[in-house]
Amino acid sequence: MRTTLPIREPFSFDQTVTFIRRFPPCQGEYLIEERSLTAAVTLGDQAVPLTIRKRGRDLEVETPRAADTAAAVERAAHWIGADDDVGELYAAAAGDAAFSRLIETLHGLHHVRFLTLEEISVYCVMMQRTPITMAARMKRAFLEQFGTPVEVGGRTLRAMPSLAALSELDGPTIGRAIRHTKKGATIASVVRGVAAIGEATLREAPYAEARDALLAITGIGPFSAAAILLRGLGRMDQVPSVKMFADDAAVIYGGAIDEAAILRRYGRQIGYWSFYVKTGAARLRG
Q1: What is the pTM for the complete model shown?
Q2: Closest Cα to residue 86, out of 147, 31, 16, 170?
Q3: Domain extent for 35
Q4: Which helix (H) or strand (E) holds 42?
Q5: Quick check: 160 and 118 in contact, CB under 8 A?
Q6: 101 and 121 share a domain?
C-alpha cells in the first residue's frame, strides 16, 4: 500500500538521506537509494519493509499490508521528523552568525531519530563508554542474532523485535551475541525497565518525569536517558548539559561558547541546536 507522508517545510529529503548514510549506528541496516529509504520494522505482530519514497516534491510511504498503513505513516514520520517545525530553530538563530552559516549547509534537515524506542533502548547501552564504531558493530551483531529478517529486493534487512519480545531475552544470551557480558546484562535490565514505563509515558509525560523514570532503571544514567528522549523519541526541549556538546560546538563556533547565552537563545529548541551542531561538526571533520 502507498500513501502520502505529510511534511512540514522547509524539508530536504536529500539532507535526510545524507545524514543516514553517514550515521555509523545505522549503516548497513537500510536499503538506501537516491530517492528512497527502506527499513525493516515491526508493526503490530509482524516485521515488514517500510519505504519512504520521494515523488516530485512529495513523500510517500509504502508497506505491504493495508492494515499497517496508519502505523507505517506514523512510524515513518517519526523516523525522519517529518512534522518538526525547523522554522522555530531557524528563527532563534537570527543574530547567531556561526549557527546561521551551519543552517545554510544543513537547510531543510529534520531530526532523524532512531527508528523505534526498542532500537535506542538497546543502543544506548552499547554506546556507554564505547567508541561509536564498536557500538555500531555490537548493534549489527545484536540484529543478526535477534532481528526478524525481511527480504527486500534480494537483500535481507532485520527488524528490531518489540519490547515485549526483547524482555524475554536474558543477559547471558545477549552478552554472547554482542561479545560483551556486562552490556548484555545491562541491556536485559534496560529493555525490561523501558517496557514497564511504556512508550506513551515517555513521549507524553513532562520531560523531568520521563527522565526520572528512566534514571530509576538499573543501567541508565543521564546520558542514556537523554539519548532515549532526544535521539529516540525526538524530545527536543532539554539536554542534560550544553557542555557535553562543547567539542562539537567549538568546531562550529571556532572556540568556546557561552553556554548560558546558548540556552537563552535556543530555549526549547536546544535539542535541535545540539543535533545540528553534532551533525555539522561531523561533516566538517569528515
Answers
A1: 0.95
A2: 16
A3: 2-106
A4: strand 36-43
A5: yes
A6: no
Eight-class DSSP state of 240: S
Is residue 164 domain-resident? Answer: yes
- Same domain flag for 122 and 199: yes
* Per-residue pLDDT reduced to its tens digit, 50-94: 999 999 989 999 999 999 999 999 999 999 999 999 999 999 999
Number of domains present in the structure of the chain? 2
pLDDT at position 99 over 90: yes
User: What one-character DSSP code corresponds to residue 162?
Assistant: P
Same domain, 170 and 215: yes
pLDDT average, residue stretch 103-108? 98
Q: Are residues 28 and 122 in the same domain?
A: no
| pLDDT, average across residues 201-206 | 96
Give, in order, the Cα–Cα distances in Å from 231 to each of 25, 70, 159, 224, 238: 12, 23, 18, 10, 12
Same domain for 140 and 161? yes
Q: Quote helix, strand, coil % in the chain, to nearest 5.
A: 55, 15, 30
173 pLDDT band, cuts 50/70/90, is very high
First and final CA of the chain: distance in angstroms? 38
CA distance 141 to 204: 32
Question: Taking Cα atoms as reference points, which of 219, 221, 235, 266 lies closest to residue 102?
Answer: 266
Domain end (from 85, 106, 127): 106
Of 212, 223, 138, residue with least CA distance to 182: 138
Say if 279 falls within a structural domain: no
CATH number, domain with residue 91: 3.30.310.20
